[in-house]
Design brief:
Bound molecules: glutathione
Structural class: alpha+beta
Helix content: 40-55%
CATH topology of the largest domain: Aminopeptidase
Number of strands: 12
Strand content: 15-25%
Number of domains: 3
Oligomer: single chain
Distance between the termini: 37 Å
Number of helices: 15
Shape: globular
Low-confidence stretches: none
Order of helices and strands: EHEHEEHHHEHHHHEHHHEEEHEHEHE
Length: 372
Amino acid sequence: MSPQMLLVGNANYSSWSLRAWLALAHSGVQAQLQRIPLYTPASAAQLAQLSPSGQVPVLYVGNHPIYDSLAIGEYLAEQAPLWPTDPLVRATARSRVAEMHAGFQALRHHLPMNGRSYYPDFAIPAAAQADIDRINTHWAQDRQTYGTDGPWLYGKWSLVDAFYAPVVLRLRSYGVPLEGAVQAYAHTVWNDPALQRWLMMAYDEPEIIAQSEPSGFKYEIHGWRPAYQQAFYDLNAAWIKRYFTLEPEDEKMLSDPEGYIVRPGGRLLFALVNGEVVGTCALIPEGPGHYELAKMTVAEAFEGHGIGRRLCEAALGVARGLGATQVDLVSQRGLGRALHVYQRLGFREVPLTAIDRERYQRCDIRMALPLT
Ligand SMILES: N[C@@H](CCC(=O)N[C@@H](CS)C(=O)NCC(=O)O)C(=O)O
């Protein structure tokens, strides 16, 4: 066993594991990650062997298991400053964490964390809405009262942000509208590269835990699998042919995404409905810290659910997780709706480069988004 090892569950579903992971990432303490997929025939025996509580997360320091997200957070807070320094402010921060750890049962029950899924038509039960309202009030109060020296709830990052990060994912997944300071705070959490590295694991996980998958229309975001290659070609070719003509650069990329995008260090994301690929998006390396956002398309029959925007947001999140400093894209001025999505995400027009027109005859605009 390595000197320090963090035992976690499925990145997609295990909210307590995510909290410990964020605390670890922000503490700077090094530990290997060991994942136990939960609720499988093998997992109970594995957990019984490795976890004193039979649950995850567990942080091993040598052979010593520290179990429960709160105990792990407190241990890491002895290695790095993860609480506010003022005793009374720290006590308030601890109250927020304790309330999350012990409460908000309706929110946790009705809106299970599912980092890769989106339910655009979800009806929030009243009890869960009451929890959400209470949390939003706390976030607004904390940002206003304690958050002046940074974008986190208590200014600098603290364990409170780890404990509420899964709530941010839930609010996104179930389409809960946010405003003002609360919306800005949710963006801060979403843009955290450590959270995004966790989600990159979620996009690639194959397991499905049925009780964490509420019924109703949903789409999921997944990473690259060779089984998606044909859909990648078909969806993109259909989209290009609808407006333009397929160019040699398209044929090259669409026929071999693994060779031209994945192996050189890029990423592919797919939106799926009932196991069928309905949307695609690619991050193609352009240079150190730079990626091109490309191959963003959604099947005509699935337009209007916000899938394209969520795919772009997921791709930009992945870019942050990969440590990118800038994402560019090339497009066509006639594609008003797509350009509007890019603008809302913060992209701004920059000059076309010499090779843009060589690569695609149709492109007449380049946009860039610095990831600060
Ligand atoms: N109070 C614990 C809760 C841990 C917990 O509920 N873990 C879940 C995964 S998120 C688990 O291990 N479930 C598997 C099981 O109970 O068999 C903590 O804060 O760490």
